[in-house]
Amino acid sequence: MIKILFAVWELDPFIKVGGLGDVARSLPAALADLGVDIRVVLPYYKAIRLGRIKKNFAGEFKLDYGGTLEKVEIIEVANPITMIPVYLLRNDKYLGVAHHPDTFAFFDKAIIKIISENVLSWLPEIIHCNDLHTGLIPLLVRENKIGVKTILTIHNLSYQGKASVDVLDKLKMDQTKCHLENWEIENKKLNFLMEGIIHADIVTTVSPTYAKEIMTEEFGCGLEEVLRGKEGRVFGILNGIDNNWRSNSHTRYVKYPYMSLKYKTSENIQAKIYNWEEGKMKNKLYLQKKLGLKKGSSIPMLSFIGRIDPNQKGIDILHKMVRKANLSEYELVILGTGNQSWEERFQWLGQFYPDNVSCNFKFDEKLANQIYAASDFILIPSKFEPCGLIQMIAMFYGTLPIAHKTGGLIDSIKNNVNGFIFDNYSSEALENAVQKALFIWYQDKPRYKTMVESAIESDFSWRVSAKQYLSLYQELINNTL
Ligand code: GLC
């Protein structure tokens, strides 16, 4: 049985910041289904509330960091959704609150210590690292000559975790071991993600298209040359969604559950299951009332769910389009948090068009599911999108994505089949795609129906992706790459 330690800084349902938290929940579960012995390791933040979850003491050790010896406790729990074992590393000073760079440098070194001293009496063959937070692990593995392989998965290349090289002193690492670029030495900057890319045995990212895009200057965020240097060792594997878990959220949160419930759900469904047309209509009327929008089933509902992030999520072109839009044609619902000045701009639109625009600047899983269920279309105008889970969840709900032609959006949406893709990153191109979608919704109901049904039929289950990870693990262990 292959043994994998999956190192990550967020994990649903303990703590979730973005899509990575979902991946950390469901990918290990899909791999376990294929027979992998996979365990997750995560800092034990003070914000994590375990409630009635059973805790086991799994060991403790001392870690030299910043010149002092710090005690680290390992608490083992099972993820309550998947039952996958999770090791929570407790040290209130460094791991209590996520603070770059110390939390992550400390976390990475702690993982090395756990393996080199076999604290768990369990040794992985591979450490599967995720994003900048675990970026120093591959380097530390090499420096400490630990017999374990490393994979680094990049979920978003634009977050690299640059930090002062002082962190190397705290780790007692020699600066010459790191690949600091000359200009970075002058600025005394260490780049966590870059170190990870250079030293990992394999690098993966979360869609085949993004794997190609990051080799270019346009998407490479300054690391394109480093990535090109890894030729043949960079792979793109599309993320999935966990259909059973989705079904459970659907029944739990959605007022009128409907036909997309083709997957098994562990919840005992008492509720009536509607067909999608009736279900969507009822959920729309319910949500319109809840959010104070104009009521009626004869107006399409468009939504945006995600971080209010102007650098990635296409907030700027979305705002520009809505400002000019004929809002009697549709309603717009926004859910997410992020950049405050952009939130204010949208809020202003919401106040100006209270009957048509509803802004909800918060993180709310229940409302998110209700929005997916009620909406006809979901807008994903991202400038770049490594994978994106929103479009897959939307399709699960029979909600057609209208998305920019980039990254994982290309790999998961078939233009004019189960969604709409627009080429140029501009408010005009977005507007044209919206108009096309609205035309079909208003004028060509049979075609709209076929598209929704094809969206519901699209299969984004994790199994296919998990198999690809498994074969990479095997090749890495057998040295056949
Ligand atoms: C990041 C990316 C997103 C991806 C997620 C999980 O949040 O921005 O595209 O789906 O990670 O891999």
TrEMBL record:
Q: Which GO terms describe its biological process?
A: glycogen biosynthetic process
Annotated Glycosyl transferase family domain ranges read 300-438
NCBIfam families membership = glgA (TIGR02095)
Q: Which SUPFAM superfamilies match?
A: UDP-Glycosyltransferase/glycogen phosphorylase (SSF53756)
Query: What role does this protein play?
Result: Synthesizes alpha-1,4-glucan chains using ADP-glucose.
Q: Please give the family membership noted in the entry.
A: Belongs to the glycosyltransferase 1 family. Bacterial/plant glycogen synthase subfamily.
Per the record, what are the reactions this protein catalyses?
[(1->4)-alpha-D-glucosyl](n) + ADP-alpha-D-glucose = [(1->4)-alpha-D-glucosyl](n+1) + ADP + H(+)
Top-tier EC class: transferase
Binding-site residues for ADP-alpha-D-glucose, renumbered to this chain: K16
Q: By what name is this protein known?
A: Glycogen synthase
Q: In which pathway does it act?
A: Glycan biosynthesis; glycogen biosynthesis
Which residue ranges does the record assign to the Starch synthase catalytic domain? 3-228
**Gene from which this protein is expressed:** glgA
Q: Which Pfam families match?
A: Glyco_transf_5, Glycos_transf_1
- Entry keywords, A to Z: Glycogen biosynthesis, Glycosyltransferase, Transferase
InterPro entries, per the entry: Glyco_trans_1 (IPR001296), GS/SS (IPR011835), Starch_synth_cat_dom (IPR013534)
Q: What is its EC number?
A: 2.4.1.21
Q: Name one GO molecular function term.
A: alpha-1,4-glucan glucosyltransferase (UDP-glucose donor) activity
